[in-house]
Amino acid sequence: MVERLNKCHQSRSDNNNESESSSSPAFESTSSFLTQFSNLKSSIESQLTHSHSVSSSDPSQLKPHFEQISTSISYLEKLVTENSYFLPSYDVRSSLKTIADLKHTLETLISQLLPKKKFSFKNKAATKKDTTNNNTVTPQEPKQPLPLNRDSLGFRNKSGELLVGDFRGSEVGKFTVSDLNSCEVRIIGCVSTLFIHRLKDSRVYVGPVMSSVLIEDVEGCVFAMASHQIRIHAATRSDFYLKVRSRPIIEDSNGVRFASYCLRYEGIKEDLRGAGLDAEIGNWGNVDDLKWLRAMQSPNWLILPENVRG
Fold first, then answer.
1. In the chain, which stretches have pLDDT less than 50?
2. CA 108, CA 111: separation in Å to the nearest integer?
3. Which residue ranges does the record assign to the C-CAP/cofactor C-like domain (predicted)?
4. Judging by beta carbons within 10 Å of its beta carbon (0-12, 13-18, 19+), is residue 250 exposed, middle or buried?
């Protein structure tokens, strides 16, 4: 089975070549996250409501007041990003909509109360200043990547290698696969949580993951994995063979294809049963694209044709 997947991946790579010639808490609980989100949202709304009072009593405090609100909104946005890999897609969308509304309200207040001041959210890129302007531009915080556990077990910083982890009969918590180029990863047995980051032209074949899989910044790869939740961010030209209890989530991705999980090894049925992943729900084909909220099919992903599957 692995050999067949490798051949399909190589065929797709050949075709593409021819055509081209952190610090927020991870709650791991939806109810805990929503409670924290609601409390922070209420606090920000209270600060926004207080803006007119600040303007009347001491206009000189408006700028730091708005900066504090901006920082709070940025933190709230970061909180959603870092925990969205285990959240239901509806809660992610609802949270992002709330953040967008808060930003709009803040921008409206700024335009009303500070019409001559230039103001932007701290997590946005700074506008390039004219070279004749001597004002120093404060470096802006880069976009926060999805969370990775850098202290966990894992495979890191390899090129052109076969990496095998056999965890049958073992208890493995978080496992990280990162910074691989042209590698093949085989994980046999169960792990609790899987983090995958910065892979190129690699293949990752994984037994059951007890909770969630988080994938970020991958290109030209093939994945076969089973998990309760799978979140994919910044993936291009990659195939995913999945068994997943919730709908897979993609964001900032394109050219990704999906098919049903097909990995086989001795004892996998028992591993899947032990992880609560033995039933075939069919969610592998019900993909939510967070950057495509229209009713029509997202152009960023498609179902892998059966005649080219491994």
1. 16-26, 117-119, 124-146
2. 5
3. 142-292
4. buried
